[in-house]
Each structure stands twice: as C-alpha cells, then as structure tokens.
Amino acid sequence: MEIKNAFAGTLESGDIMIQISPAEKAGLQINLASTVAYQFGDQIKAVITETLQGLGINDAVIDATDKGALDCTIRARVTAAAVRATGKDVWQ
Fold first, then answer.
1. Could you tell me the residue range of the domain that residue 44 belongs to?
2. Residue 92 pLDDT
3. Please, what is the Cα angle at 71 between 69 and 30, to 5 degrees?
C-alpha cells in the first residue's frame, strides 16, 4: 500500500497530532512526544498500532504529539491521517 505524508489532529489540550510518513524499513515506527508518556505511553502506542493494522497499514513512520487525548480520539486521528495518507476511504 502506497503511503504519502499526512497529518490529522491539533496541538490543543485533549487532542493528539498524528503524522504518517512512508517507512524506509518494514514495520511501524512510532515516535511519541507526550507529557504523560511515562504513565500512558505504552497504551497510546498500542492504540496507534492496533488502529493502523486494522486498516491494513503495517509499514509506516508515525510521529505523534499527544496533549492528553483519550483512546477514542487517538483512534479517530490515526484513522483520519491513514485515510489521507493512502487515499483509501474506510467509511464506505
């Protein structure tokens, strides 16, 4: 699946900014910047990974800047960025 650079989200409190870029090597590389990474970093990365794999994306670089987003918000932002990156409409 071809992936282009794409963004979704904001840097507002309670949100997360997701950037998806093509990967140079196999697998998902997640770079997380979050003030709560020590407490919730593993959970945030797991939600990002599960969402992308559910959409059929297994090779990408993800830069996530979290501002306290809930899991549902993370899923929504990752899905929106994935749709923009692939052009694949997952809502049909």
1. 6-86
2. 63
3. 80
Are 44 and 32 contacting, i.e. CB atoms less than 8 angstroms apart? yes
How many helices (H) and strands (E) would you count in the chain?
A: 2, 4
Number of domains in the chain: 1
The CATH number assigned to the domain holding 79 equals 3.30.230.10
CB-based contacts of 35, cutoff 8 Å, min separation 6: 66, 67, 68
Residue 90 is predicted with a pLDDT of 74
Structure tokens at 17: 């900014």
Quote the CA–CA distance of 27 and 17 in Å, as a whole number: 21
3 state DSSP class of 8: strand
Q: The dihedral of CA 40, 42, 30, 52: what is its sign?
A: negative
- Averaged over successive runs of 10 residues, the pLDDT of the chain (92 residues) comes to 93 96 94 94 97 94 97 97 90 66
- Is residue 71 situated within a structural domain? yes
